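Researcher: I'd like a structural prediction for the single chain below. Treat it as a standalone chain; there are no partners to consider.
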Amino acid sequence: MIISLSGTLSLLLEKSAIIDVNGVGYEVFIPDSMVGSLNNVGGPLTLYIYHHIKEDSQVLYGFPSLEDRHVFMILTSISGIGPKVGIKFLSTFSSHDLVSIIANQDFHALTAVSGVGKKLAERVVVELKDKMSEIKLTQSAVSPANSTYKTVDKSYRDDLTSALKILGYSQDEIRRGVESSSALLHSDMSVEDAIRVVLKSL
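Model: Treating it as a single chain, here is the predicted structure.
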């Protein structure tokens, strides 16, 4: 079982990174937010790995911290949430935000994850609220580029998302735009100003 990989980031793909470890290239699927933040192709990279083994395949999922890996493992312990769905949660929210959302039983926020409807979001909250409440994450587990949950409240986020959908942007485009602009967004800003900020990153 592979727990971590340390080597050279040799190639960055849309959903994965190729890490060269002593001449062997490993494809590791990573959260979208991490794909957008990696800019050191040819440089060193360490990822903490979930090694998913099936009868007909083996797939590696990688995370920048053990805390991220731990949250991913908790998410995928739920029936119906496999690694592909679990990685979408950590592509939409940082580990810190996920812990806060689930511990606060804000199932509505979880529906921002692609492919997650109200029923699945409610089940995640019901099954994991106690486990998430017990987690104490270190600061290193927080992804600054993906921490909009604390700085922008739910109703404001919903208004911004609805406005961008009316303009013709997809859920994935909106998520990426908000992630890229999160440091500049706050609930005191008008939705119109927030839209202008997000559009600059799309």
